[in-house]
Design brief:
Arc Repressor Mutant, subunit A, 2 domains, DNA-binding, Dna Ligase, domain 1, two-stranded antiparallel ribbon, 5 strands, binds zinc ion, homodimer, three-stranded mixed β-sheet, 6 helices, alpha+beta
Chain lengths: 143, 143
Amino acid sequence: MARELLEALDQAGVRLTGPRRELAALIARRQGHFTAADLLADAEQRSLGIGRATVFRLLELLADQNLVERVDLPDGRHAYVPCEPSHHHHLVCVSCGAISEVDDCGIDAVTAEAARRSGFEIQSHRLELFGRCPRCQNVESRQ
Amino acid sequence: MARELLEALDQAGVRLTGPRRELAALIARRQGHFTAADLLADAEQRSLGIGRATVFRLLELLADQNLVERVDLPDGRHAYVPCEPSHHHHLVCVSCGAISEVDDCGIDAVTAEAARRSGFEIQSHRLELFGRCPRCQNVESRQ
DNA sequence: ACCAGAGTTGAGACTAAGTCTCAATAGGAG
DNA sequence: CTCCTATTGAGACTTAGTCTCAACTCTGGT
Ligand SMILES: [Zn+2]
Ligand SMILES: [Zn+2]
Ligand SMILES: [Zn+2]
Ligand SMILES: [Zn+2]
């Protein structure tokens, strides 16, 4: 999965540098969503000597390329989720952070209707669903 | 409109203090979305002597009461929109910030389907639509 | 009208998120 | 291998948001 990120970056015409390879690997082994701070902590823990700015720069690059999506958690934090470049949405587990992808069947109809009623010309949308994943539901019910 | 905010706050059992009345009035006269910084700047410009913390505290209070909704702008900033307490979503003009409310007809079906497929128990969702309002479309096309 | 006490306030310290600058470094095309 | 440019890390800086605490002010009860 780190490979996919790197290939896509290569495709995008940027250099495949050491720090980028290392960060891609760190992102790949992450489960669910993570924040820039999480990634930075991962890097520091392994003494990779990667600077704060480099982390933010790579995340921005990946987000531009739709290799990673920025999610706004209900508590206001910004997190990232590695994902397919195609348009879709995320279901986020509020207790463990697990992610499930959702294709947006049906949402387009909603946006089209909203556009018709309001006269707005809709350019983009963001849909985020929050809840508890099957595993967390089980854990909870067994306690 | 400031009156409505204050009545709702009263209903919620919090004190109607001077700073809250003043901030409610400032919020009421705002068009479209605004950030905490905007509101703070409004207050400072009028030398109301309202502290930064008070602004954040009131916004949190209003958000808890669903009198204001927190919107995450595409550029990552957090903004607020005064709105009806009932569940709904916002259409945000990316060039002037104008807001249009959208009731979520159809979205519930999407979330139900996503829940069924993923096994998640969905607790909440957030939908934000971004585009250009009718006025901004006209301005653009006349230039 | 008065009072008491809990809720609220502003100042300012503090933390965390994110950006910017710049000299040094390292990809990678040729 | 060489050169040029993209990229890097350090650290200063800016901004968002939180926290603490002594001072203040609502408000309900008298
Ligand atoms: Zn979970
Ligand atoms: Zn969509
Ligand atoms: Zn507009
Ligand atoms: Zn909804």
